[in-house]
């Protein structure tokens, strides 16, 4: 509890589709503006995906990331975190390509394979603005998000050689044991930034008891060598991340994870979600980490050593 709280903001992701919210950033200009606003509101880490500007479909090409990464870096001091999860149906080489080429301070790393079912979101699409949206969502009923030991090791070795640290995305308790396995092999070094994710159908559910179980398991496996962060999907976002912060962890918000600011109220921006959790945390007498304080807590290489 002595450390400050790192707020991560996940700007757009690859789950929500453009028809779900008019506020979801899609173009490079929108992603840039949303990232800067989120940083100004208090986010120390900005987690980034890219999309095709015309269709809004997830796009993992390094060139697409380069349309906004340098601009965000020039206008904010936040840590920029590039996804290696990409979007549904992408190969591991496609998913790793932007981080390998651009060598960010932090990249996400999914810590195991699992069913990733977001097909229920298709029910909210009455008249999709893009023809790909409904099929993309419904196809997830038959999706295994592949993160085999071979794939994880490939990402750890290739990105670790470039000094990139990881946001270890753990969707279930077994993923914590997978991380401990790779730590025992010496492929990753502490401090481990462990993002525990709750509420995706096919992974661990969004129950408070599950957060306690994930934390106690991580405590046992990693002791003082890790930084807990909590991600709650959809309506579970603010209750779970507030609980995580009270337990001494860090928090993640953003339109990748949840399109709403409150019940029935679409979030006008990522920054509004950052401002809301910041207000909650400060009311609890918790201090918010600056980007440089987050760098010290996570042991990143610094913004001068990235390739963008």
Automatic annotation (TrEMBL):
<keyword id="KW-0479">Metal-binding</keyword>
<keyword id="KW-0862">Zinc</keyword>
<dbReference type="Pfam" id="PF05853">
    <property type="entry name" value="BKACE"/>
</dbReference>
<dbReference type="InterPro" id="IPR013785">
    <property type="entry name" value="Aldolase_TIM"/>
</dbReference>
<protein>
    <submittedName>
        <fullName>3-keto-5-aminohexanoate cleavage protein</fullName>
    </submittedName>
</protein>
<keyword id="KW-0808">Transferase</keyword>
<dbReference type="InterPro" id="IPR008567">
    <property type="entry name" value="BKACE"/>
</dbReference>
